[in-house]
C-alpha cells in the first residue's frame, strides 16, 4: 500500500490573515511567520502549523516565544539520526537588551567522527 502524501494546508494562508492559536490568542500572520510555518512543516513532516483553523501548539512553542530582558531561557541544539540515536545540547542563556549571552563559560565544540 502506497503511503499517503503529506500536503500542507498553508496554500490558502496569506500575510495579514488572522488565526487563533491553540491558547485562544489572536495571531496576525506576517511574512516572517508564514515563512517559518512553511519551514516548520518541511522540518517536521506530517505536522501542520495550522490545523482545523487554529495555529497548533507545536508551532507556537517553536516560534512565538516572548523574550524579555533579564529572562533566562534554555537554548538547545538537537542532532538526531533515525535508527541510530541523537544528542541534545542545552545551555542557559540570558536575554539582554541587545541580544543574548550564553551563561556557561564552557565552549561548545562538536567533533564529527
Structure description:
With 113 residues, the protein is of the alpha+beta class. Among the domains are: 18-63, no CATH class; 72-102, no CATH class. The protein is built from two helices and seven strands; from the N terminus they run E-E-H-E-E-H-E-E-E. The protein has helices at 31-43, 57-63, and strands spanning 18-21, 26-28, 50-51, 54-55, 72-81, 85-96, 99-102. The protein has a four-stranded mixed β-sheet. A three-stranded antiparallel β-sheet has the order 5-6-7, with no helix packed on it. A hairpin with a 2-residue loop joins strand 6 (85-96) and strand 7 (99-102). The radius of gyration is 18 Å and the shape is globular. It starts with 17 loop residues before the first strand and ends in an 11-residue tail after the last strand.
Concise account of the structure shown:
By secondary structure, the protein is an alpha+beta fold.
**Main β sheet profile:** 4 strands, mixed
Distance between the termini: 38 Å
* Element order: H for helix, E for strand: EEHEEHEEE
Arithmetic mean of pLDDT:
76
- Rg, Å, rounded: 18 Å
Main sheet strand line-up: 2-1-4-3
Strand content: 25-35%
The number of helical runs is 2
Structural class per helix/strand content?
Answer: alpha+beta
* Overall helicity: 10-25%
Amino acid at each position: 500500500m502506497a503511503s499517503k502524501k503529506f500536503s500542507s494546508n498553508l496554500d490558502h494562508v496569506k500575510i495579514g490573515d488572522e488565526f487563533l492559536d491553540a491558547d485562544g490568542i489572536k495571531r496576525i500572520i506576517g511574512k516572517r511567520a508564514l515563512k517559518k510555518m512553511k519551514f516548520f512543516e518541511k522540518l517536521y513532516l506530517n505536522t501542520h502549523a495550522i490545523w482545523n483553523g487554529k495555529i497548533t501548539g507545536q508551532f507556537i512553542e517553536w516560534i512565538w516565544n516572548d523574550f524579555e530582558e533579564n529572562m533566562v531561557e534554555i537554548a538547545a541544539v538537537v542532532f538526531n539520526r533515525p535508527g541510530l540515536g541523537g544528542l541534545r545540547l542545552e545551555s542557559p542563556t540570558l536575554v539582554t537588551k541587545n541580544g543574548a549571552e550564553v551563561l556557561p563559560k564552557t565552549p561548545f565544540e562538536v567533533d564529527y567522527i
